[in-house]
Specification:
disordered N terminus; 0% strand; mainly alpha; 491 residues
């Protein structure tokens, strides 16, 4: 059996007495998500419209390429998560994969927005597909092992929320800052149909991603290398048994609630983010600078979430707080669209319109971050809950499996988005003046019921999660007794 906990790590136990903000490992762990935030911003908001209106791929074909890459990403997440759980090296379980990501992610990100070959109608689909596959593989190599460090770094039920609030904050600041600058100076300045802005975006993004990988990996290396090694390693020759262990671990019913949430909300996420620029540019009529202004104000949201998440979670528990935040957010989401179609929204593209829209977006993002932080923290608690029954640490697998659920179906959401763009007649639209009221109405009526219905169903599934603070502490006590018994037998 894989025993990853072993004896308590002395250096971590000693450091746990130091305030988190004064511990360098806290910041190195949190800052890692900037790389994911930048990649996610590109794939969620820019890539469909870039491939469609700059590279000239039909929306449905561009969406298909992104969906195929996403399906591959979801499968590779599972294998990589399990593999990293059972990797034994002097650099730790996770870090060999994190270093390897440097060879793939930054160069491929640059090449996607700065094509290294001439794009033609015959090769455009394959170029987007191949670069997207490489980017997603590089992201998996870094993000899955990096996130999975948390259960070893922090055992406290409530303090885990702060680690993940910081990590989510860095992810949002990384993605949203480059998004804001992009729409002030690059894509927003040159136009969403002009390649120049995307070239600058790809170059800067690749450099920041590379710097983030180097800084976070080196910064967490010493602590990771000191963690106990697994006694059971990954065996490629016994892949059937390895897959059997994956299924044994993911049968945990609390994990199933988080997995089910990701499975359902993934479709909504893929749909909503892929249509974001179509909605802001063509539905609401905002310019690139106005979209950037919204991005500036959204920078408030991670800071608010960082402070309120631990506060509310400690008072009301992680599951209840997460569900309340996500419900509050989805109630707000359709209001601007409904008001605009009903004639109660300010004129298209005005700063008054932007002001109202920005308020809605900032509050929604706070709810989204609070929910995301707590679900990641809840996933960390599943690690010990599962270890009680399996006697195996599977944090990499659990985080990867939840990610798998989100990604495998968000590919479907992207395909839905590309299909909606084509169905409502946006394929041939290059300016706001070309958008008719009928196009706008069709876009909202296709999009909103599907998006909101899926999110509400996902929240209903999440409500089946049952681990609270008392359960978590009981699991830790059980595992501690087992370690003492093993130590006594060795003695």
């Amino acid at each position: 059996m894989a025993e990853n906990t072993g004896e308590s790590n002395g250096s971590i136990d000693q450091e746990s007495q130091v305030p988190l903000e004064r511990r360098p490992i806290f910041w190195f762990y949190g800052s890692a998500s900037m790389a994911y935030g930048i990649k996610d911003n590109a794939f969620s908001y820019l890539l469909l419209i870039f491939a469609n209106q700059v590279l000239g791929l039909p929306a449905y074909l561009a969406a298909t390429a992104l969906a195929i890459a996403l399906v591959w990403d979801s499968i590779s997440d599972l294998l990589l998560g399990h593999w990293s759980d059972k990797t034994s090296t002097r650099y730790g379980r996770r870090h060999p994969f994190m270093y390897a990501s440097l060879l793939l992610l930054p160069p491929a990100f640059y090449s996607l927005f700065n094509p290294i070959i001439e794009i033609t109608p015959d090769n455009g689909f394959y170029y987007v597909l191949i670069t997207a596959l490489i980017i997603r593989t590089g992201t998996t190599l870094f993000e899955v092992p990096s996130t999975a460090l948390l259960p070893d770094l922090e055992k406290d039920y409530d303090r885990r929320n702060r680690w993940l609030a910081l990590r989510h904050g860095f992810g949002w600041y990384g993605g949203n800052t480059i998004h804001t600058v992009n729409f002030f100076f690059w894509v927003g300045a040159y136009g969403v149909t002009v390649n120049t802005g995307y070239e600058i975006y790809g170059t800067v993004g690749a450099c920041v991603i590379a710097g983030t990988i180097v800084l976070s990996t080196l910064g967490t290396q010493k602590v990771a290398a000191a963690l106990p090694r697994p006694t059971e390693t990954f065996r490629f020759r016994e892949i059937v048994q390895e897959i059997g262990q994956i299924f044994q671990s993911v049968k945990n019913r609390n994990f199933a609630a988080l997995f089910g949430y990701g499975l359902i909300v993934g479709i909504a996420g893929g749909l909503g983010t892929a249509l974001y620029l179509y909605n802001t540019v063509y539905f609401f009529g905002f310019s690139g600078n106005q979209i950037a202004v919204t991005g500036v104000f959204v920078l408030i949201a991670p800071l608010v979430a960082y402070w309120i998440t631990p506060l509310f979670a400690s008072r009301h528990g992680k599951p209840a707080t997460a569900i309340a935040a996500l419900l509050f957010r989805i109630v707000l989401y359709p209001i601007p669209y409904v008001l605009l179609l009903a004639g109660y929204w300010p004129d298209f593209g005005t700063w008054l319109s932007l002001g109202f829209y920005t308020v809605f977006i900032v509050v929604e993002v706070v709810g989204l971050i609070v929910g995301g932080v707590l679900m990641d923290s809840m996933m960390a608690d599943v690690v010990e809950d599962s270890e009680v029954s399996t006697e195996r640490r599977s944090e990499g697998l659990f985080y990867a499996a939840r990610s798998f659920a989100y990604k495998i179906v968000s590919a479907g959401g992207i395909v839905f988005a590309g299909t909606i763009v084509s169905l409502v007649g946006l394929d041939g639209v290059n300016s706001f003046d070309q958008v008719t009221w009928q196009i706008r109405f069709d876009l909202a009526t296709f999009f909103l019921p599907l998006y909101c219905g899926l999110v509400l169903l996902a929240i209903a599934v999440l409500s089946r999660y049952r681990i609270d603070k008392e359960n978590h502490e009981a699991n830790l006590a059980t595992l501690a007794r087992r370690r003492q018994d093993r130590d006594a037998l060795k003695g």
